[in-house]
Each structure stands twice: as C-alpha cells, then as structure tokens.
Amino acid sequence: MRRFAQPRLAAAALFGFLAACAPAAADELVKFASAGQGDPIQGYLTKPKGAGPFPAVVLLHTCLGLPEARASIGQRIAAWGYIALFVDDFATRGLKETCAVDFQQALPDAYGAQAYLANLPYVDRARIAAVGFSQGGDTALKIATGGGAGPAGGGGAVFKAAAAFYPPCANVAGATLVIPTLILVGAKDEVTPAADCAELAKRQPAGMAKLVLYPGAAHGFDIPEFGAGTRVMGMLLAYDRSAAQRSWAELRSFLAARLAR
Questions:
Q1: pLDDT digits 0-9 by tens, 29-82
Q2: Could you tell me which CATH number the domain at 9-258 has?
Q3: Do 67 and 61 meet the contact criterion of CB atoms below 8 Å apart?
C-alpha cells in the first residue's frame, strides 16, 4: 500500500501551509481526548454567530501540522454557518512533522474531535463532516471508507460526509466509500496523482463519490507561494487561482447539500 511518505517529504514540507482567505478571526483553544488510547489532544474551535445548534466540520491538517492560515480557514467555515474544529495532532505529542511515517494516530484523533463536538450543546451531532488536506485528506478518506463510526462513538454520532483536498487515494485503493465524499485534486498532480483518485471514484456506489479534477492544476493548487510553478525532487507544485477559488466554492456547496437538515 502506498503511503504518504518518501519521496514526498520535500513536497510535503512545502504544501503544509494553506493560503489565508479572510481576515483572521479569534478562535478558541480546546482540549479533548483522542479515541482509543485517550491521548490528550488540542484543537482550535471557531463558532458562527448565534445559539445553534450548528452543523460542524472537523478540519485535518497536513503532515507538517497546523497551517499558518488556521484561523482564517476556521473563520471561512464558520461564516458558512458551521462550527469549525481544526485538530492539532502534534502539539501535545511534541511533534513537528510526520511526512515520512504512517501516522496512525491521525484517525483516532479525528474521531476524538468528532466525539468532543457531539457533546457540545450548540452542535448538531447528526451533522458533522470531516475535511482534510493532503495527509489530512488521507484520514478523511479512511473515515469515509470506515462507515463514519469511530472507536469512541461520540455518543452515537457518526461522520455524515467527508471531503479531501489532494489526498493520496492509492492508500485506500480497493476500498468502498460508505458516506458521501468529495475529492478535489489537480489533473497534473505529481505528488498525489489524480489518476489514483479517478480510479477510486469510478468504482464507488452511486452518489458516494464526487471527484473534481482541475485541468492544468498541480499539487498545492490553493497555495499562492508556489507561483507559476516550483519543482521539488522532480515534482511540480503550483498555485492555480482559479482552481483554488473553485475548490472552496465546491466544498461549500458539498457541505450545504450533505449537512442539510
């Protein structure tokens, strides 16, 4: 099984940061337990205005940890009407990156975040989605192929939908998606190939997978720092303004449809 690791380490070190898309908003540092072993984990919670109950989104970072734009990404999701919880897998473990390993704690951490949200009085536990970026996208796909029910259970809550930005689809080759899943990938991605995601999507039950390919876009298409293109270990990483804008619009539409009452 292909892992998100060597020779992708150098590339991962570059796409770990997402572009800021709105002025930073205040978010709240929260603490919860990872599922399974119960490791202490922290994350950053951003709330919409109002009393709720709101649907919620668990955000899952890359192998380099939280992006610089963490607060503005949370603000964007909250502005759409969702609670946003950006999970920090690393701080309480003293980690800097997990690009060259199979980071197995990411999945129970995501389920721990789900359980934490499900117990908040202003969250609608029946409407929680997972959204991941690269290595976080790998976790989102694993959630999507595992039935949405985590080991912690979240008091009976399950993930209702999942979305993955340029994930390593080869890691779940042959698996069946059992919750609606959105996959966003550049057609010229040399790090997590679009062909792997196309193969995964085409064999899924009707309505379970929506694959969006961005023609001409490479890995990290939502990261302006790459400009017209940067080659790292022979792999092209490039910002594509159109693909970036369309991907966020696509995510917003997907969440609105899948987390509707």
A1: 999 999 988 999 999 999 999 988 999 999 999 877 888 788 888 999 999 999
A2: 3.40.50.1820
A3: yes
> 85-99, 124-138, 233-247: lowest mean pLDDT where?
233-247
As given in the structure block, the two tokens for residue 237 are 């990483």
Give the predicted TM-score (pTM) of the model. Answer: 0.87
Per residue, the 3-state secondary structure of 235-248, as one string, reads: EEECCCHHHHHHHH
Domain ranges of the chain: 9-258
Instruction: Report the alpha-carbon distance of residue 213 to residue 216 in Å, rounded.
Output: 9
Quick one: how far is CA 155 from the chain centroid? 23
| Amino acid, res. 147 | G
Q: Is 172 left (phi over 0), alpha (psi -120 to 50) or beta?
A: alpha
Task: Quick: pLDDT tens for 189-245.
Answer: 988 999 999 999 999 999 999 999 999 998 878 777 668 887 654 557 788 899 999
Q: How many residues does the chain have?
A: 261
Separation of CA 120 from chain center: 21
Q: Return the exposure string of 177-216: e unless at least 16 CB atoms fall within 10 Å of the residue's CB, then b.
A: bbbbbbbbbbbbbbbbbbebbeebbeebeeeebbbbbbee
